[in-house]
């Protein structure tokens, strides 16, 4: 039997709020790693560097106007190179490393295909904070989650009797994959699609969880019709409560 | 305590309170928070199509490996 190669990889998430959400296990992985690659809020990255001095930010791989896929390829290559060098590697991605983040899944698959030990540890995601801060139980009416642009690019079936959570709402409709925020026109197309299932005055909320404990969550309610011009950030998540009652069978 | 250590304590300790900081600590913390606000971190984004950057557009299959959640 051939021995497994020496390098190993674990992708972890420190949660959303600096110091508040990290698991003991995640902290131990970080502290014991030969190298930690991080893609988190700057404050969190600075904190992670205090846990392990061999912490390297992946932020410098992003650039304005650069194709995001090129950035992901470089992240993948950078992490894999250290694994192939036989190092104990940690990839640390904010929130939960496997929630709306492709690189961690991708790099774990590659490492395994090449015979290395690789796995993911869960973390507290924006979704978890949203349920807590907004008092939503996804089990009450059900809850659908979509990447916002998928509603524009693909036929998806919405259930307006359940909650609808749209991730990356600030980027909705951006096909350039080089931008950070989409245009009013691109977002209006999303509004038009949502208007098939929801009334224009249906109240929706923008949710932003803070990254440090001294800040408060942003929860702002406004009518769906205002979505195309409402102030959104790359970290905004849109919450659309049910608009209809569940229909008895 | 450094500003980052204060933020870690505020995150981890439910009894920690900014009002208990010394004037110097408070000033260092506010300065740090302001600095963070000025940095526009490009947080990792997921793409609307399901493919990995090098792959064809196909949904990922569950693997045989129990650990594989991809
Ligand atoms: C690429 S995903 C990363 C999600 C992250 N891995 C997690 O576990 O929450 C980015 C999207 O997550 C959501 N998100 C990220 N940070 C957030 C925050 N601070 N508050 C609310 N939603 C957030 C937004 O929908 C954002 O566009």
Helix content of chain B: 25-40%
Structural class of chain B: mainly alpha
In CATH, the homologous superfamily of the largest domain in chain A goes by the name Tetrapyrrole methylase, C-terminal domain
Radius of gyration of chain B: 21 Å
Shape of chain B: elongated
Bound molecules: S-adenosylmethionine
Helix content of chain A: 25-40%
Low-confidence stretches of chain B: 52-70
Task: Set out the fold topology.
The complex is a heterodimer of chains A (249) and B (70).
Chain A: E1 8-12, H1 24-32, E2 35-39, H2 42-51, E3 55-57, H3 68-84, E4 88-93, H4 102-113, E5 117-120, H5 126-134, H6 138-141, E6 143-147, H7 148-153, E7 163-167, H8 184-194, E8 203-208, E9 218-223, E10 237-240
Parallel strand pairs in A: 1-4, 1-5, 2-3, 2-4, 6-7
Antiparallel strand pairs in A: 7-10, 8-9, 8-10
Helix pairs in contact in A: 3-4
Chain B: H1 3-12, H2 23-38
Helix pairs in contact in B: 1-2
The structure holds S-adenosylmethionine (SAM).
């Amino acid at each position: 039997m051939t021995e497994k190669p020496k390098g190993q990889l674990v992708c972890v998430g420190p949660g959303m709020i600096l110091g508040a959400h990290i698991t003991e296990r995640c902290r131990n992985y970080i502290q014991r790693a030969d190298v930690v690659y991080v893609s988190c809020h700057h404050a969190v990255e600075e904190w992670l560097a205090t846990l392990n001095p061999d912490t390297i930010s992946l932020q410098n791989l992003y650039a304005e106007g650069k194709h995001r896929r090129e950035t992901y390829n470089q992240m993948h290559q950078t992490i894999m190179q250290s694994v192939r060098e036989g190092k104990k590697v940690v990839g640390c991605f904010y929130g939960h490393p496997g929630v709306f983040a492709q690189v961690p899944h991708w790099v774990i698959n590659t490492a395994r295909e090449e015979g290395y030990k690789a796995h993911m540890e869960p973390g507290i995601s924006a979704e978890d904070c949203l349920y807590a801060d907004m008092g939503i139980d996804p089990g009450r009416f059900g809850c659908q989650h979509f990447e916002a642009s998928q509603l524009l690019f693909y036929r998806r079936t919405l259930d307006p009797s359940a909650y609808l959570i749209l991730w990356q709402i600030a980027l909705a409709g951006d096909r350039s994959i080089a931008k950070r925020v989409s245009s009013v026109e691109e977002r209006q197309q999303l509004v038009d699609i949502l208007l098939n299932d929801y009334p224009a005055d249906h109240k929706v909320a923008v949710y932003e969880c803070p990254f440090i404990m001294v800040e408060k969550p942003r929860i702002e309610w406004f009518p769906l019709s205002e979505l195309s011009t409402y102030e959104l950030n790359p970290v905004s998540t849109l919450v659309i409560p049910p608009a209809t009652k569940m229909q008895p069978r | 305590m450094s500003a980052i250590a204060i933020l870690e304590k505020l995150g981890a300790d439910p009894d920690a309170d900014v009002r208990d900081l010394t004037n110097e600590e408070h000033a260092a913390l506010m300065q740090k928070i302001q600095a963070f606000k000025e940095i526009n971190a490009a947080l990792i984004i997921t793409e609307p199509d399901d493919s990995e950057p090098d792959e064809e557009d196909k949904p990922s299959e569950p693997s045989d490996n129990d650990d594989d959640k991809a």
